[in-house]
Amino acid sequence: MSHGDAPRPPQRPLPPRSVTIRCRIDGPLVVELSPDCYDLGLSLRVTDHEGGEHPLPDDGRPLALCRCGHSARKPFCDGAHKTIPFTARQIAPSPSAPDVPSADQTPTGPLDEHKRNPP
Ligand code: FES
Q1: pLDDT tens digits, residue range 75-119?
Q2: Does an H or E element contain 113, and which?
Q3: CA-CA distance, 60 to 79, in Å (whole number)?
Q4: Domain-embedded: residue 1
Q5: Is residue 119, in this structure, part of any structural domain at all?
Q6: Measured in angstroms, how far is the CA atom of residue 56 from the centroid of ligand 1?
Q7: Which pTM value belongs to this model?
Q8: N or C: which end of the chain has fewer CB within 10 A?
Q9: Residue among 25, 71, 74, 89 to mutate when testing ligand 1 (max atoms within 8 A of CB)
């Protein structure tokens, strides 16, 4: 079995009025809108760094954003991640895990320092 054939974990139902970005194991970032988002008239756009809009693929598949860097149609996934040794298996921390700091205990990093003391 190649890494692209890994069994998919069971999917949880999407919370109402939500946009979920799901990190696929060894694959793209899949953007999922709860069904009621469409009823609410919400739309989804993918833009470049200048705000130019990338037309969304119209292939009927879930929107998947490349994170391996090898897609020929970036920023969207074209499946190229299956042909390279790309691994991305970060597991989200459990909310009950004792080593997960709460928001007010989160250590500061360089970005936080940059916000406090911009150049
Ligand atoms: S994640 Fe699929 S082509 Fe990059």
Answers
A1: 999 999 999 999 999 899 988 765 545 444 444 444 444 444 444
A2: helix 110-116
A3: 15
A4: no
A5: no
A6: 16
A7: 0.70
A8: C
A9: 71
